[in-house]
């Protein structure tokens, strides 16, 4: 995979720090805004990136790029992903995928027409600890209660309270707790249990944005709560509770650093099956394989899951 990156924010810095650990990935180009060009120069030098642009069209026209990683504010995902596909590039788009189901379907239609691949980058469902949770659901079933918690006091929250509204808290840029942190919980719930029968979001609104909130998903046989908070502190423990036992996620749900299982009447077992030191390595190894092998079956499966998750997210957003 010959990768070109669009963006220069925190997630790009995170990714670049581990890009050299992903087999068969050639880091070819980086595109930033003109305002962030100096940051781009520093990243280019530090990570030995072949080409640096301050105009996305130049990256789209780079014949050495076959895949574009879209890592920009949420509100720009659709337009940049669409432009990349129309330029003949595969697309890895950061979470949350796009704003609406219609946008997602339009992107997939363009990709299919041109035999291109588009996938959503969402770390947790590619982690080995998530697979442990998935594989052990039947041991605790029937499952009736799901409580997921992703609380992280934002490094930008104090500035937000002072009136400095950065993209993560900007309603015009599709920010907020639901879109930033809640999306990880939502991917876990929908991946494990499918689409719910009903969705209800209870947000805490400050300056016209949800700084925290509780999303309730109702199923015929279970109830699920997703807590996402950028204005609070918590040790972050999540549980999936069934008649025969419980599965536990310790730590932030985007990383899932440890998981546990406790069957009724048995001792708690805590393990870590994650293979890699950074949460993004597993997903990008999988994306590289999918793209290099042109595995459209895997793409279709991943897209169906992203679409189901987006349907729930779209309904929750309408209730903010």
Automatic annotation (TrEMBL):
Residues spanning the signal sequence: none
Source organism superkingdom: Bacteria
Residue intervals of the GFO/IDH/MocA-like oxidoreductase domain: 152-246
Pfam family, one: GFO_IDH_MocA_C3
Domain annotation Gfo/Idh/MocA-like oxidoreductase N-terminal: ranges: 2-118
GO molecular function terms listed in the Swiss-Prot or TrEMBL record: nucleotide binding
PANTHER family: PTHR43054, SCYLLO-INOSITOL 2-DEHYDROGENASE (NADP(+)) IOLU (PTHR43054:SF1)
Official protein name in the record: Gfo/Idh/MocA family oxidoreductase
Organism encoding this protein: Lactobacillus taiwanensis
Classification of source organism: Bacteria, Bacillati, Bacillota, Bacilli, Lactobacillales
């Amino acid at each position: 995979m010959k990768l070109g990156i669009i963006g220069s924010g925190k997630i790009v810095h995170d990714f670049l720090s581990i890009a050299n650990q992903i087999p068969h990935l050639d880091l070819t180009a980086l595109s930033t805004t003109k305002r962030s060009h100096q940051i781009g120069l520093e990243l280019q030098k530090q990570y030995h990136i072949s080409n640096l642009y301050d105009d996305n069209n130049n990256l789209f026209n780079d014949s050495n790029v076959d895949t574009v990683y879209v890592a920009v504010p949420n509100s720009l995902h659709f337009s940049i992903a669409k432009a990349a596909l129309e330029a003949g590039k595969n697309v890895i788009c950061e979470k949350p995928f796009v704003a609406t189901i219609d946008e997602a379907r339009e992107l997939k239609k363009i990709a299919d027409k041109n035999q291109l691949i588009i996938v959503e980058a969402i770390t947790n469902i590619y982690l080995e600890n998530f697979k442990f949770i998935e594989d052990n659901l039947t041991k605790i079933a029937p499952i009736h209660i799901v409580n997921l918690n992703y609380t992280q006091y934002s490094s930008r929250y104090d500035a937000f309270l002072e009136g400095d509204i950065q993209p993560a808290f900007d309603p015009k840029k599709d920010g907020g707790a639901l879109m930033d942190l809640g999306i990880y919980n939502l991917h876990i719930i929908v991946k494990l249990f499918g689409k719910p029968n009903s969705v209800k979001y209870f947000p805490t609104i400050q300056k016209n944005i949800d700084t925290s909130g509780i999303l309730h998903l109702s199923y015929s046989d279970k109830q699920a709560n997703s807590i996402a908070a950028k204005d609070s502190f918590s040790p972050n423990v999540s549980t999936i509770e069934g008649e025969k036992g419980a599965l536990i996620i310790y730590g932030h749900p985007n990383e899932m650093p440890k998981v546990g299982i406790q069957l009724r009447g048995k001792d708690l077992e805590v393990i870590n099956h994650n293979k890699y030191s950074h949460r993004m390595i597993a997903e990008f190894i999988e994306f590289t394989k999918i793209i290099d092998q042109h595995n459209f079956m895997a793409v279709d499966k991943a897209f169906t899951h992203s679409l189901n998750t987006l349907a729930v997210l779209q309904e929750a957003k309408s209730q903010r």
